[in-house]
Write a sequence for this structure.
């Protein structure tokens, strides 16, 4: 089946988020390289013992994020790095940075203090993976 | 053309001490619906009505396009029914039942049946009388699954099963849905399983449908919001608050229509916003409806 | 007749196979005992009656009531059949089971009457009436079981019909058209005989066909 992808019942996060995270991790680690076909929604649902609707939602959100691409009638594939995926990511980053800058201003942080916060966050993300 | 697998509309069934009222249910092919309700809510009654074992006093029932109970013989060719109450015939073995089903249903898959016997840890030579409750459930599930019916109607299919058996049964049920032309309706108390594998969920209480929606929407709509209100601060009028608990400064609100809009309406004193498990949603939903009905 | 109905009749015969075998053996043994002399005749006759009554009760009670109680009814009703199909299969199936025992036992009894010299052939008409009465009795029990919704009512039906056996024996035997020929050397098929037989067959036919019109139309079976 899909050993390795595991949906935990005790994890407080919703199942669709867990699926998304595990797929994203595999994509980031190149285990699932760009262009690789994802299992069909029904196949993954049956393999994980999770409802079809949950897998559908995960795939939809992953597509919005640009991690995967769905070709109607053909299936879902890991997105190519340079393409719509990258653009969406760029947009998201710009948005997040803007929000961070605004929050930093509200909290009264200096540019250097805000940059330090960003560095700390990067280190944490690095550690998680 | 209506190709729903189950189309139940405004069904009414009157018993001496209980009435099933205005029950409507729809199941699309490729879907699995979890049917949840307290004991005595009317789950078994509803499922028996779908199988033509009882007739409604009002309303219409169509299963796989056939009128029920009039055309039940035809409909049941393609329906697998399992109830935790069901027992195998006495003085016979499981093997005999398998042969019996094979002789009645041409779609019987002997190979799959043999696989299930092993997977469910059963033996064909077992006499019906010697089976425990859990073994009866597994046996009747086997007899239903091996026919590969288009529709499965299951009344508490995980009753009496140990965790390993439950896992095996759930895996088999999910395998059924690899085929998008097949569907499952199952009733259960086990909200953990229902939450995990259902596409849609229907709640029933005291003979009435309380709520019915797709699972992800349920999980997104319901929230428990905790606030700490400083003295003198009042909350504005809020829509869709199903429950309000106050303990001094600490307030807990339960909502069934959570949105960013509601969040901002509530204001700045929110300390936590919790998602709710299906079990919590179920209890809150039923309590809310009982209060509403009492008024 | 649909495949399912046929299979269910076969299933009835299979599930009740031990009652059938036991009943046949008991019936034949009773007749053999009855052949052993005057005392034996009384004992044999009693066990013969008990055999047929017990078989009828077991099939009528066990075959229908227990199926409801033991929840095997849901299993059968989940098969591709209508309630009418089920009633039909039950009637035909259980009757088939009883008929095996009845034919064997009645045949053995009549064989005793005609083959054994010490048993007057004149008793043959009465024996025939008794046998047909037992068959009619069974169909009434079956009919009652299929229509009765409660175990209490079904049991009442069974008790009443069994009382009927005694009543039959006490009222029919002394009938003028029957009594005087009982110990005769040859069977006399008097008009009384035909009248009683006619009544029995009428009851039998009514009891047998009623479920096909009533119980089969039931909209609630559980």
């Amino acid at each position: 089946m899909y050993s390795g992808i595991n949906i935990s019942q005790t994890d407080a996060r919703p199942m669709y988020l867990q699926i998304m995270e595990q797929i994203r991790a595999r994509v980031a680690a190149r285990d699932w390289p760009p262009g690789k076909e994802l299992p069909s929604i029904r196949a993954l649902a049956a393999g994980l013992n999770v409802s079809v609707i949950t897998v559908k939602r995960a795939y939809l959100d992953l597509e919005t994020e640009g991690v995967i691409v769905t070709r109607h009638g053909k299936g879902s594939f890991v997105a190519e790095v340079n393409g719509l995926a990258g653009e969406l990511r760029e947009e998201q980053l710009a948005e997040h940075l803007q929000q961070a800058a605004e929050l930093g201003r509200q909290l009264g942080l200096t540019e250097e203090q805000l940059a330090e916060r960003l560095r700390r966050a990067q280190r944490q993300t690095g550690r998680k993976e | 053309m209506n190709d729903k697998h189950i189309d139940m509309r405004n069904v009414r069934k009157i018993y001496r001490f209980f009435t099933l009222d205005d029950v409507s249910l729809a199941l699309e092919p490729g879907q699995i619906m979890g049917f949840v309700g307290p004991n005595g809510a009317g789950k078994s009654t509803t499922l028996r009505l779908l199988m033509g074992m009882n007739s409604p006093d009002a309303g219409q029932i169509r299963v796989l396009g056939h009128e029920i109970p009039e055309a039940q013989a035809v409909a049941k060719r393609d329906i697998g029914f399992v109830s935790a109450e069901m027992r195998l015939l006495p003085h016979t073995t499981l093997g005999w039942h398998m042969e019996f089903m094979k002789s009645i249903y041409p779609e019987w898959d002997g190979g799959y049946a043999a696989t299930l016997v092993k997977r469910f840890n059963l033996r064909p030579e077992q006499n019906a009388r010697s089976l425990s409750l859990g073994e009866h459930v597994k046996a009747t599930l086997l007899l239903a699954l091996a026919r590969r019916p288009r529709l499965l109607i299951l009344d508490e299919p995980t009753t009496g099963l140990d965790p390993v058996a439950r896992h095996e049964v759930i895996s088999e049920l999910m395998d059924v849905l690899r085929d998008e032309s097949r569907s499952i309706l199952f009733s259960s108390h086990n909200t953990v399983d229902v939450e995990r594998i259902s596409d849609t969920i229907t709640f029933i209480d005291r003979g009435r449908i309380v709520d019915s929606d797709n699972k992800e929407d349920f999980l997104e709509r319901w929230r428990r919001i905790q606030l700490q209100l400083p003295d003198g601060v009042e909350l504005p009028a809020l829509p869709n608050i199903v429950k309000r608990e106050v303990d001094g400064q600490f307030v807990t609100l339960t909502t069934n229509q959570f949105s960013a809009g509601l969040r901002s309406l509530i204001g700045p004193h929110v300390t936590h916003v919790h998602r709710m498990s299906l079990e919590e949603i179920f209890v809150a939903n039923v309590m809310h409806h009982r209060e509403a009905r009492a008024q | 007749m649909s495949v399912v109905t046929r299979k269910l009749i076969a299933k009835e015969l299979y599930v009740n196979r031990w009652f059938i075998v036991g009943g046949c053996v008991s019936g034949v043994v009773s007749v053999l005992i009855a052949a052993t002399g005057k005392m034996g005749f009384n004992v044999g006759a009693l066990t013969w009656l008990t055999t047929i009554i017990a078989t009828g009760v077991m099939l009528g009670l066990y075959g229908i009531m227990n199926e409801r109680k033991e929840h095997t009814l849901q299993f059968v009703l989940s098969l591709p059949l209508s309630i009418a199909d089920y009633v039909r299969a039950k009637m035909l199936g259980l009757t088939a089971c009883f008929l095996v025992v009845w034919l064997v036992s009645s045949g053995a009894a009549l064989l005793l009457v005609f083959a054994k010299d010490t048993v007057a052939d004149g008793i043959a008409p009465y024996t025939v009436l008794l046998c047909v009465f037992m068959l009619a009795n069974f169909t009434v029990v079956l009919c009652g079981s299929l229509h009765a919704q409660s175990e209490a009512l079904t049991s009442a039906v069974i008790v009443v019909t069994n009382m009927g056996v005694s009543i039959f024996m006490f009222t029919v035997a002394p009938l003028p058209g029957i009594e005087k020929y009982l110990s005769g050397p040859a069977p006399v098929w008097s008009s009384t005989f035909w009248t009683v037989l006619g009544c029995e067959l009428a009851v039998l036919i009514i009891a047998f066909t009623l479920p096909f019109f009533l119980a089969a139309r039931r909209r609630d079976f559980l």
Q: What stands out?
A: Chain B is about 35% helix and 30% strand. Chain B touches chain C through 30 residues (CB under 8 Å). Residues 12 and 21 of chain B are 5 Å apart (CA to CA). The radius of gyration of chain B is 22 Å.
